[in-house]
């Protein structure tokens, strides 16, 4: 059994519920010590929470420094926290756009900057949670889709620049997730399943392999729309 100091450390944002909590739980089961950056704290000791507003670059820097100093290492960072605001461009409040850019994109930049020294030391991995919305655009989704699309460029550039320093980077882009309490939609992935997939990328691949990008989709599909002559069966 490894000593406490020998156990790997994962820093995950947004672990107080949903997908982030599932990712943290899956890594914890694999023996990782968890440190979390959460705006709202759950109060559970195993999450190693630090209160952090991801729109505040200074607070991100403080929390990363505290997490690394407290554990003595950092092996993985998972940028999971996300905000959403939907509405047509003509009506979307500028404050909503600015908030999504700050949380979904700019905070990831600051996480990269402040975790890189420790990740270089551990030959670690930076994971960013993307979305199918980055390539499958929809009305009312401009702010969300734009921030998720930009993550691809950010993560790929990180991989190109830091692979020579031993740091790997991965963008994981899931489809529909049952991410809200009480959501039991049969055609969405469970948060637990997504958490297990993320943990497998982090802890299940050989260290001489990097998964630069991974897309995951729900296995089930709703019935397709009725088209063509088959419409006659439904009138």
Automatic annotation (TrEMBL):
Pfam families: adh_short. Gene3D superfamilies: NAD(P)-binding Rossmann-like Domain. Transmembrane segments: none annotated. InterPro entries: NAD(P)-bd_dom_sf, SDR_fam. GO terms for molecular function: oxidoreductase activity. Keywords: Oxidoreductase. Its EC number is 1.-.-.-. The keyword Oxidoreductase applies. It is an enzyme of class 1 (oxidoreductase). Belongs to the short-chain dehydrogenases/reductases (SDR) family. This is SDR family oxidoreductase.
């Amino acid at each position: 059994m490894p000593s406490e100091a020998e156990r790997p450390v994962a820093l995950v944002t947004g672990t107080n519920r949903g997908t982030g909590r599932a990712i943290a739980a899956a890594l914890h089961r694999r023996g990782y010590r968890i440190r979390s950056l959460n705006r709202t704290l759950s109060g559970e000791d195993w999450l190693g929470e630090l209160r952090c507003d991801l729109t505040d670059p200074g607070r991100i820097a403080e929390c990363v420094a505290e997490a690394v100093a407290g554990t003595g290492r950092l092996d993985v960072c998972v940028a999971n926290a996300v905000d959403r605001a939907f509405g047509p461009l003509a009506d979307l409040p500028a404050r909503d756009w600015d908030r999504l850019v700050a949380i979904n994109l700019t905070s990831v930049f600051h996480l990269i900057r402040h975790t890189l020294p420790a990740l270089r030391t551990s030959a670690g991995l930076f994971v960013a949670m993307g979305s199918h919305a980055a390539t499958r655009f929809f009305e009312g989704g401009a702010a969300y889709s734009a921030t998720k699309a930009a993550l691809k460029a950010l993560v790929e550039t990180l991989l190109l620049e830091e692979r020579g320093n031993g740091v790997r980077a991965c963008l994981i882009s899931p489809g529909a997730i049952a991410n809200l309490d009480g959501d039991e939609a049969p055609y969405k992935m469970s948060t637990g399943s997504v958490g297990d997939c993320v943990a497998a990328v982090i802890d299940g691949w050989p260290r001489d392999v990097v998964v630069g990008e991974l897309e995951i989709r729900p296995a089930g599909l709703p019935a397709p729309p009725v088209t063509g002559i088959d419409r006659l069966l439904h009138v």
